[in-house]
Amino acid sequence: MDTMMSIFQISAGMLVTVLFALWLLWRYVTDTRQTRHTILRNYPVIGHLRYFFEQLGEYFRQYFFLGDRDEMPFNRATRAWVYRLAKNEGGIIGFGSTYALHEPGALIFVNAPFPVLEDDREATPPLVLGEGWCEHPFLARSIVNISGMSYGAISRPAVQALSRGAAAAGCWMSTGEGGLSPYHLEGGCDVMMQIGTAKYGVRDERGELSAQRLRELAALETVRAFEIKLSQGAKPGKGGVLPAAKVTAEIAAIRGIPVGVDSISPNRHPEIANVDQLLDRIEFVRAATGKPVGIKTALGGWHFMNDLCDAILRRGVASAPDFIAIDGGEGGSGAAPQALADHVALSIDEALPRAVDALIEAGLRERIRVVAAGKLVSSARAAWALSAGADFVNTARGFMFSLGCIQALRCHANTCPTGITTHNAKLQRGLVVVDKAERVANYARNMNHEIDMIAHSCGLRHAREFRREHTRIVQPNGQSMALNMLYPYPQARALQTLLQA
């Protein structure tokens, strides 16, 4: 028996060796005859090691070589901080910060010599969107909210966890441009229905915006507002992209598109070519839904905001959007061409104060709420946005980290190892909805708490009292400058005219 087993093992070993040798021979012949890759043609077989290590390089750098503050788009220190908030472990460190306080762009908040006492602190008040301008205004309770991530771009359990967590934390959740799915509604959270350039979820049989469909969605109590997306920070000037591998039968039905075909949105709304047509569309959606209507856009300069404000003043403030979501060029939870992601649209650091200034100059700041987005995943960055003039902060990747994202950079490939951006059921299995919903809620709550904590250290009763003078930015010479010196508050045009007269 032992002899037979030994013969079997030897035979199996020889067979494996022969098969491996045949595979090496086939690989050698194939590599030397192919014409696409010079390395493989000159170094058959072993040349594959180059591509293997190149593929694994980002993972080795992430965990073994880069420092805690070195990595992009989010360094390890930032990710670990979000993980701790999501796990309710607190953002406490010891032995000092690794934050580079002297590098250009570093944020410093102006602490008060006599900070607000515990008894004098106030809860940060909610703000209303569309009050006095639509039938059903939206009382928004949380400063920090979930930015647009379409069902399709992210998975079913990810949407479910976000919906449940948002409901528990009292923040809103944007649908992204992929339409409203049952999973957005599952948790009972406040939903911001986004209208993308392809009109997914609100289109008729011709692919045009359907008033009937808008009314049906508005009849849902938890659909609180509508957002017309002009562009996003990840890819300004290009529509959303959902690879064919992610277009399942269910997603195709929700969007109204063919199964298994790349879902590519137009690079803009065909019917919106100027600010007047944009205001026409805002008024149309608001009349059809009775709910607040805003826009989302990345900015490339100042002309758009100035032209928009001029048109509103000419037509009357009733035509204005109820909110404007400014997305910085550093945004990027969605798949995007690298040329656009790297080089198109202003950073939120520049776009946000300029957009707010345009509203102040036009006397529209109280009419229009401002939402800021663009790598605002930390409480300090969110507090900066409030100082610059934002009313709310949206983040997508912050909430992806709360779901367990490890920044594998495979969002577009349907191979996300954490189950967040894949429709592979085996990979989705790792994302337990009940557990991740709790982490989503923890992250939102703790973000709001830490923003208030920064406000209290600045001598403010709550976070809505932030102004530009409370924030300083380190300059290239190593000295900091107050935000109100970098971006002085402008005067309203009527006052400017009066002073000039």
Rg (CA only): 26 Å
Total strand segments: 15
Put simply, the count of helices is 18
Percent in strands: 5-15%
Report the span from N to C terminus.
110 Å
Mean pLDDT: 87
Strand order of the largest sheet: 4-13-12-11-10-7-6-5
Can you walk through the features of this model?
With 501 residues, this protein is of the alpha/beta class. The chain is globular, with a radius of gyration of 26 Å. The chain has 18 helices and 15 strands. Helices cover 41% and strands 12% of the residues. Strands 4-13-12-11-10-7-6-5 form an 8-stranded parallel sheet. A 3-stranded antiparallel sheet has the order 1-14-15. The chain has a two-stranded antiparallel sheet with strand order 2-3. A hairpin with an 8-residue loop joins strand 2 (127-129) and strand 3. The protein has helices at 2-33, 38-42, 48-65, 76-86, 156-169, 182-186, 211-218, 249-255, 275-289, 303-315, 338-343, 348-361, 379-388, 397-403, 425-428, 433-457, 483-486, 493-500, and strands spanning 107-109, 127-129, 138-140, 144-146, 172-174, 190-195, 223-229, 241-242, 263-264, 293-297, 323-327, 369-373, 392-395, 471-474, 480-482. The longest helix is centred in the N-terminal third of the chain and has 32 residues, at 2-33. The mean pLDDT is 87.
